Amino acid sequence: MPIYGKGDNVRDWLFVERPRPGPPPVLERGVPGETYNIGGHNERTNLEVVRDICRLLDEMRPDSPHAPHSKLITFVADRPGHDARYAIDASKIERELGWRPIETFETGLRRTVAWYLENEEWCRDVQSGGYRQERLGLGARS
Q1: How far apart are CA 86 and CA 83, in angstroms?
Q2: Could you read off the pLDDT of 1-41 as tens digits, one per residue?
């Protein structure tokens, strides 16, 4: 698992599965012309996220030949101009529209890792070039 530089680039992580039922709060209660940032209040470094993924993989796939998964982490040269931090101030949407993330960082990451482990055939298709951007849903693949 290659990580740019020291892995100290910070991002605000937000789990997104699908829209909530009903109209989005911005369309329902937002003021036309206003801007509302959506954020997760989950600032983590890339290295922290990768280590969390490795811990989840160790837990969910204890018999994996790659366990402990953290031994797969490698550091590669950072790309020029790589932003050190992306952050979102989501206080306005929370204050004015009452929007907050449903999932915490931990529950969202656990669900994400579980999804990938349950959809290994799709992952192989993506890596092989076989995936053609079909829409995935609850139904069987065609």
Answers
A1: 7
A2: 999 999 999 999 999 876 666 677 888 889 999 999 988 88
CA dihedral 52, 55, 59, 61 (to 10 degrees): 100
- HEC assignment per residue over the chain: CEEECCCCCEEECCCCCCCCCCCCHHHHHCCCCCCCCCCCCCEEEHHHHHHHHHHHHHHHCCCCCCCCHHHHCEEECCCCCCCCECCCCCHHHHHHHCCCCCCCHHHHHHHHHHHHHHCHHHHHHHHHCCCCCCCCCCCCCC
Whether omega before 62 lies within 30 degrees of 0, making that bond cis, reads no
With cut-offs at 50, 70 and 90, classify the pLDDT of residue 102.
confident
- Model pLDDT for residues 76-88, shown as the tens digit of each residue: 999 888 899 988 8
What residue ranges define each of the domains in the chain, with the CATH number in brackets? 2-117 (3.90.25.10)
